[in-house]
Each structure stands twice: as C-alpha cells, then as structure tokens.
Write a structure and sequence with these properties.
Mean pLDDT of chain B: 94
Structural class of chain B: mainly alpha
Largest sheet of chain B: none
Shape of chain B: globular
Low-confidence stretches of chain A: 1-5
CATH superfamily of the largest domain in chain A: Cytochrome c oxidase, subunit III, four-helix bundle
Oligomer: heterodimer
Largest sheet of chain A: none
Low-confidence stretches of chain B: 1-14
Radius of gyration of chain B: 23 Å
Distance between the termini of chain B: 17 Å
Number of domains of chain A: 2
Order of helices and strands of chain A: HHHHHHHH
Number of helices of chain B: 15
Shape of chain A: globular
C-alpha cells in the first residue's frame, strides 16, 4: 500500500479535453452551417476535423509517454479496460438503432403500407398500387424521391461474401498478432498486424467499389427509398468504423515497430483488437440481415 | 481506519491546487469538475425556469397575451431540453463526481481527463442549442421529443438541434463510462458491492442506462438528419419508412432516460432518510435489486408513450402490462423508505424535509403514471395537461426535490460551513406549497381535456390555469432564496465537524470538511462497521 508503484496515477491538469471539446464544437458548428447551405461552413468543418485529429494525436502522445514512463500500474490498466469495453458497448447500441430501423421497416412499415393485417385502408387510401416486398424495388410514392426504381440490389454471394471472408480472416490475423506479442515475437506481431491492416483496407476498397456499382448501375442510392436508406446507413457507418479501426491498427503497428509493447503490458493493442472484433461482428450482422436474408 | 490517520496522510500530500482559470479549464480533479457540473446545472435551472415562466405567463389567461404561438412552442421545447439535459442530468453527474470517489474510498475518478471533457462539452452543447433562439425560423418548437415530420420542418435551427443532441450524448456516454470504471475498479479494500452506499449503486445502474440508451438517441437523430438533408426515407411513408418508427426509436432511449433522471434521486434520498431517522436503511439488498429491476424493465416499456399512435393490439397490451410491473419494484422502494423512518428518532432538518416531500409527492407522480399506463385510460389522458402534471410531479417534486435535498445534505461537507437552516426551511415550505399550487390543478385541467403545448385554451380552463400560473411564479421566485442560501453557505458560516450530521455514516463523513483536494490517496480499509449500510 505504501509502495509508490501501487499509487493510482492521477494525471496533471491537461489541455487536451478542452481542446477536444472546442474541436468538436467547431466541427458541429461548421457542419450545421454547411448543411444549411453555406460553403463557408465546409471550411469551418474542415478546421474542426483538423483540430480533432490534432487533439487525438496530442492526447494519445501524452498517454503513450506516461505509459512508457511506467506511470500506469495494474489498476490503471484495468480502468482502461473497463473504459474501452463500455465504449464498444455504446457503439453496439448505436448500430442497434439502425438495425432496429431495418427490422421495423421490413416487419412493419413496408407490410403495413402493402395492406397487411388491419392496415387494408392505409393501403387503399394512400398508395393502392403499392406492392410490399423486400428488397423494396418500387417505393410507395414514385414522385416523392429522386431515384426510386431499382434495377437490382447487391447479391450476398458476390463481393459481400468475399468481404465477409476478408474481415473474418483479419480477425484471425489480429489474433495471431496477439499470440506473437504474448511470445515476445515482435517480428511476428508486426507482420500479422500489417496483414490485418491490409485486409481492412482491401475491405474498404471493395466496399467502395460496391457503392460505385450501386449508384451507377443498380440505381440503389441513399435517397431512393427505405431499402437504400437502411442499406447505406448501416454499411456506411460500418465502413466508417472499419476505416477508423484500420487507422487505429496502423498506430498500433507503428508502436509495435518501435517496440512499445511487452508480453505483459500491451493494453493499447488489446483495446484496438477488441474494437476490430467489434466491427467484425457488426459486419456479420450486416451480411446476414442486409445482404443475405 | 481512524480519522487521524487520514488527516496525516493528507498533510503529506501537501494538497497543491492549480490556480487561476486553468484550474477549471484543464482540471483533472473530481471535486472541481463536480463543482463545475453543479454550478452549470444551477445556472441552467434559472434559464430553463425563465422559459417555464414565459409559458405560465402566457397561460395565465385564455387568449394570446405576450408571445406568438411559435415562440411559445419553442419555449415548451427548449425548456424541456434545458431542464433534462442541462439541469437534472448534470446535477446528478456533479453529485456523482463529488461523492462517488469519497464514498468508495478512492483518490479520484478512474479517468480524470475524460471526466473534464464530459463536463466541458455541456456549455458548448448548450451554446449550440440556445443559439437557435436567434436563428431564422426560430428555436426548435416541435416538442423536446423532436417527432418527424413536424421537427423536420424546422428552419436553420434543425442541424444545430441535431448536433447539440449528439454533443450532449457524447458527454453523457463518457461520463457514464467513467462512473462504471470508477466503481468497478476504484473501490477501497473491503468495499464490496453489497457495502456500497445506495447512491453509488443507483449511479452504476444509471450509468448502464446511459450507455445503453444514449447511442440509440444519437442513431434516431442521425436518421432525422439524413432524412432532412440527404433524401433518405426512414420516417417517410412515401419511401417505405414510417414517422412512427422515430417514436419507437426515440422512446427506446426516452424511457430509460426518465430513470436516468430519477434513479440518482432515489440514491440521494436513500442516503438522507437513514441519517435523519438515525436507523440503517431498511431492506438495503431489496433496494439494490429493486433499482436494478426498474432499470431492466425500463427497456421494455417504451411504447406506453405512444399508445394512441396506432399500434397492434398485442403491442398495446404488452406495453401496458410491462409498464404496470414497474410499479412493483418502485413500491418496494417507497415502502423501504417508510420502513426506515418507522420508529426512528427523526429530526427534520432541510435535507430531511425535502426527502420526505420527495417520498410523498413522487408517489403522487408515480400513481398518475400508473393511471397513464392503463392503455384505455391513456386514450383519454394522452397529450393533455394530465401528462404534464404527471411528469412534473416525478421530475420537479421527484428529481429536483432530491437534488435540493442532496445539496443541503452535502453542502456543509463540501464547503465546511453550515447553511442557514432557517432560510433552508423557508425555501422548503415556499417551494413545497407553491409547487403543488403549480402542478396539482394541472391534473384537473388534463382530465377535463386541456391539451398540452398550446398557447391558448378554452375559457372553461381559465380558473385552474390562473391558479397554476400563480403557483408557477411563486415557485420560480422561491428558487432565488435557494441561490442565496447556497451562495451564503459557500462564502461562510459556522464551521461544521467532519461528520456534520449526527446520524451520518459512510466514508465521505470520515474526511475533513471541506475535504482535501485529493480524497483518499491511500485507500481506507472498509469493514462492516465502517460501511454505510
């Protein structure tokens, strides 16, 4: 109890939280002005995002320096673990909202518009021509949305299946990296991490190709009815998270090359690996409920 | 562990505080951050209260008097957002920040820098929200629930509203993560879960609710944003979506949110009643389980806010029975508070008075909630002043009264000075009488059919509205007395002992008043004798 190393590390006053708050504030103000139709807002948003990146690099530089200086004892490590776990849980709930929207549209709103159950009059009075189906190829009111007729939707057993294989194998490679780390094999750690990052970016690249294909050939767009809306919001937020995860993995890779991690002390690696498994699991949900069934 | 030992260790710690504005901007100290939260909540309480007075002034008489209807609707909307996200939640987090490390015997919160950011987001998020008052098209006016399609028709304020909600969500989630990490990882040796003070218990459970529900709100408003600006059709039937879907997603957040507001209040009252009844809390374990049950059930009752929207019959029945079932654990809590007082040696200092008023008046709000939970009855009450009366009983005489009680209870500990008991009692009686004059007649208005969120009303409602407005102004101005008592106590007053209250138990009362800058640099050993319960 009196051992200096067992004292819980309380950081000195830090400017990063207020820098981060200001950066987010500037980004939100810029984004809002941009959405209200002023190009000036885009500039402010750009400034804000740059400030967010500055905040992250500065904040994490402090944390890494403290970690290397040995200021974090076991108890601090456990705090980080609790923090990261519940952060990931909050992300799960964020995706749950969009999955909820997808299920609601498929189970309730689309069948009801088609006159299912007690909703016969809804159907007759609103859009009697409408036929409920999923994927929804023809939306109820063709006039209301810009591009409402789909030619086709993306089949599950093409690129999406390949992407599933890619993400699942990246989950394996990151585990191999962890095993290497635990055996203090830095070379193996770096190569397996490199493979994971590479697979992540291949995934994003293929996904981008699918988006271009949807927009240009299939006419499935974000603004073309509920199928496109749910499809793009789910896969879009997922793709964004994969990009973030891959960026985090790159930082970990750089730190592994510098030899920051030891077999006993590598929370940063594990936190990012958890995050990577999380995007993996979300993708499985997407593959099953968005593409497959 | 004796108090003497604790004092000695803190002298070693030479208690150096950062100085100047940097002490607050860059703070990593749970007490300073807690103070900022509480001061912020107090400021917002008066801003939100001023909005409520605009509403009550307009409703003093039938007809349109002072403000135009759009502005009136902005007032109801922004009043709610300010009071929920700017007053009750920050005040609760402020108390958590101040008290949890002192109650569990830790030096600070687990993640102090994150803690700072959780706080500083709040003033900036409210700058986003309140700036909309000066924008073309006015501030948000479609109700705090932001239902589409009405809220989609908002002018330039729309993206500011959405981003303010995102921003507040980030703050709450970070705060909640910090509280969970703190309680799970920072407890002193011997401070087992079943020895935690009930305030700490209610806050862990609240933190889980925050983490599980706020991201869902973020998702809901994100879909609003894309519907408005990127042509998606989540909430448009023309594209295959459904505006009712927003209500489902929103209330999946919204119902846990009401427990986020009230559970910390339960915790505060569960600390205060045993102190002034000079008896341990009756049924500690059942209190813990009841709190957890309420939180768990809160995820399965959301659609009782939308009984009249046109749900399948099975949905109406399920959500009615699920809602009723929450009355069981809530009843357990009420009975336990009463049983704690049974044959206790009670004294009635201001914190106890507010806690007693809480138990009685919150129960009134609970019972009217039960009435609203009955589907067929709700078809009559929905969107009337009965609903307004119900949630103001649970939130004002519930949550806010508990926050008053908590402030009076711990203020001497924080400042080292006793507050002015006479003025405190004046504040209590003025508030309690006026708040009932304010909200009780609204039950009758609602049962008679007066709709909420409308600036004008039929002359048959005139009498009760006038009474309610008189109560409203009396309640509002009574709070200036509260402000005065708090400022007076911060500036000076008779010195208090470490324990402050004769019947107080728990680790926070073993620290000096005011406590040192860092609470427990060396964790105390907790035993059954020193544990709170």
């Amino acid at each position: 109890m009196s051992d200096a190393h067992s004292t819980y590390f309380i950081p000195e006053p830090s400017r990063w939280p207020i820098v981060g708050t200001l950066a987010l504030f500037v980004s939100f103000v810029g984004g809002a002005i941009m959405l209200n139709g002023s190009g000036f807002g885009t500039f402010i948003l750009g400034l804000g995002v740059a400030a967010i990146i500055y905040m992250f690099s500065g904040w994490f530089a402090d944390v890494i320096a403290e970690s290397i200086a040995g200021k974090y004892n076991q108890q601090v490590d456990v705090s980080f673990r609790w923090g990261m776990s519940w952060f990931i849980f909050s992300e799960v709930m964020f995706f749950a909202a969009f999955f909820g929207a997808l299920y609601y549209a498929r189970q309730f709103s689309v069948p009801w518009l088609g006159g299912e159950g007690a909703k016969l009059l809804t159907h007759e009075l609103l859009w009697p021509e409408f036929f409920a189906d999923w994927p929804l190829m023809v939306i109820p009111d063709l006039e209301a949305f810009a591009s409402s007729l789909y030619h086709e939707v993306i089949p599950a057993w093409g690129i999406p299946a390949i992407n599933t294989a890619i993400l699942l194998s990246s989950g394996l490679t990151v585990t191999f990296a962890h095993w290497s780390l635990k055996k203090n094999n830095r070379k193996g750690l770096c190569w397996w991490l490199f493979a994971t990052v590479l697979l992540g970016f291949i995934f994003v690249f293929l996904q981008a190709g699918e988006y271009i294909h949807s927009y240009h050939e299939l006419n499935v767009k974000f603004d073309s009815g509920i199928y496109g809306s749910t499809f793009f919001i789910l896969t879009g937020f997922h793709g964004f998270h994969v990009t973030m995860g891959a960026t985090m993995l790159m930082v970990i890779l750089a730190r592994s090359i510098k030899g920051h991690f030891s077999e006993h002390n590598h929370f940063a690696f594990e936190g990012v690996a958890w995050y990577w498994h999380f995007v993996d699991v979300v993708w499985l949900g997407l593959f099953i409920f968005v593409y497959w069934f | 562990m004796s108090e003497a030992v604790i004092h000695e260790e803190h002298h070693d710690d030479h208690d150096h505080k950062p100085t100047g504005i940097g002490r607050w901007l860059f703070s990593t100290n749970h007490k300073d951050i807690g103070t900022m939260y509480l001061v912020f909540a107090l400021v917002m309480f008066f801003i939100g209260g001023a909005m409520a007075l605009v509403i009550r002034a307009e409703l003093f008489q039938p007809g349109l008097q002072y403000v135009d209807p759009v502005f009136f609707n902005s007032m109801t909307t922004v009043h709610a957002l300010v009071m929920i996200f700017g007053v009750v939640m920050p005040a609760g987090v402020g108390l958590a920040n101040w008290l949890i490390p002192m109650m569990i015997g830790s030096p600070d919160m687990a993640l102090p820098r994150l803690n700072n950011m959780s706080f500083w987001i709040l003033p900036f998020a409210f700058a986003l929200l309140l700036s909309t008052m000066f924008m073309e098209g006015g501030a948000p006016n479609g109700g705090w629930t932001m239902y589409p399609p009405l809220t989609l028709q908002l002018g330039n304020a729309f993206p500011f509203l959405i981003f303010a909600v995102h921003f507040l969500g980030i703050s709450s989630i970070m705060g909640a993560i910090n509280i969970i990490a703190t309680v799970f990882n920072m407890r002193a040796p011997g401070m087992t879960f079943m020895r935690l003070p009930l305030f700490v218990w209610t806050w862990i459970i609240t933190a889980f609710l925050l983490i599980a529900s706020l991201p869902v709100l973020a998702g809901a408003v994100t879909m609003m944003l894309t519907d408005k600006f990127f042509g998606t059709s989540f909430f448009s039937a023309a594209g295959g979506g459904d505006p009712v879907m927003f209500q489902h997603v929103f209330w999946f957040f919204g119902h846990p949110e009401v427990y986020i507001l009230i559970l910390p209040a339960f915790g505060i009252v569960s600390q205060i009643i045993p102190t002034f009844a000079r008896k341990p809390l009756f049924g500690y374990e059942s209190m813990v389980y009841a709190t957890a049950s309420i939180a768990f059930l809160s995820f399965f009752v959301w659609a009782h806010h939308m009984f009249t929207v046109g749900m399948p019959l099975a949905g109406e029945l399920f959500f009615m029975y699920a809602t009723m079932s929450i009355a069981v654990p809530t009843g357990v809590k009420i009975f336990n508070w009463v049983a704690t007082m049974w044959r206790g040696s009670m004294t009635f200092e201001t914190p106890m008075l507010f806690s007693l008023a809480f138990v009685i008046l919150f129960s009134i709000g609970g019972f009217s909630g039960l009435m609203l939970g009955i589907t067929p009855a709700d078809f009559q009450y929905h969107d009337t002043y009965f609903v307004v009366a119900h949630f103001h009983y649970v939130l004002v005489t519930g949550a806010v009264f508990a926050l008053f009680a908590g402030t009076y209870y711990w203020l001497p500990k924080w400042t080292g000075h006793m507050y002015d008991e006479t003025l405190g009692k004046w504040h209590f009686w003025l508030s309690t009488i006026s708040v009932n004059v304010l909200f009780f007649p609204q039950h009758f208005l609602g049962l008679a059919g007066m709709p909420r969120r409308i600036p004008d009303y039929s002359v048959q409602f005139a009498d009760f509205n006038m009474i309610s407005s008189i109560g409203g102004f009396a309640f509002g101005f009574s709070q200036l007395l509260f402000l005065y008592v708090v400022i007076k106590c911060v500036r000076g007053g008779s010195k208090v002992s470490d324990q402050v209250w004769e019947g107080a138990h728990g680790l926070e009362w073993t620290l000096p008043s005011p406590p040192p800058f860092h609470s427990f640099t060396t964790p105390p050993q907790v035993t059954d004798a020193t544990a709170h319960s």
